[in-house]
Design a protein that fits this description.
The chain is an alpha/beta fold and about 160 residues long. The chain has one domain (about 1-160): 2-Layer Sandwich (Nucleotidyltransferase, domain 5), CATH 3.30.420. Helix content is about 50%, strand content about 20%. It has five helices and five strands, in the order E-E-E-H-E-H-E-H-H-H. It has helices spanning about 40-60, 75-95, 105-115, 120-130, 140-160, and strands spanning about 1-5, 10-20, 25-35, 65-70, 100-105. It has a five-stranded mixed β-sheet with strand order 3-2-1-4-5. It is globular, with a radius of gyration of 15 Å. The mean pLDDT is about 95.
Length: about 160
């Protein structure tokens, strides 16, 4: 099973594909960040994001997509823009017939660490213990996407 995790953002969106074997072990991990240029208009940024995400969906061929649900942001304008990017993701998941689910941040943390109020370091530590993550520097958005994908896999397994 191939799970794509998304950590939505306006300036940058983290993504991570976790490839699981039939025995439930993670065989491989691909991750990265989609950046949008600050000097571009909103429509140009959305178009760039949509194009990059479509390329990711085509090349990685995920079976499921999990995205971190955004409840609120300090800046209302940013919250609306993130919601617009998530709308593009919803559209692309439907267009490519890939199931998409949203997971609240506290549920991601609780699923991975057992504590819904864990900090990023605790989540990252558990990811290194549970997954074959190469010891390389990842941006926070990228690590968050790995966490979302892994939590999505665990939650999917528990529903079977």
């Amino acid at each position: 099973m191939r799970i794509l995790g998304i950590d939505s953002g306006f300036e940058k969106t983290g993504y991570a594909l976790l490839d699981f074997g039939k025995d439930g072990t993670c065989k491989d991990i691909f991750s990265g960040v989609i950046y949008t240029a600050k000097q571009k208009s909103l429509s140009e940024r959305i178009l760039h994001f949509a194009s990059q995400m479509q390329n990711i969906l085509r090349s990685m061929e995920p079976d499921k997509i999990f995205c971190e649900q955004v409840f609120f942001l300090n800046n209302k304008k940013t919250a609306i823009q993130v919601a617009q990017f998530q709308g593009v993701l919803i559209f692309l998941s439907e267009k490519n017939s890939i199931p998409l689910s949203f997971i609240p941040p506290a549920k991601v943390k609780k699923t991975i660490t057992g504590n819904g109020r864990s900090d990023k370091k605790a989540v990252e530590k558990m990811l290194y213990l549970e997954l074959p993550l190469a010891k390389r520097r990842r941006e926070d958005d990228e690590t968050d996407a790995v966490a979302v994908a892994y939590a999505g896999f665990i939650l999917s397994k528990s529903k079977l």
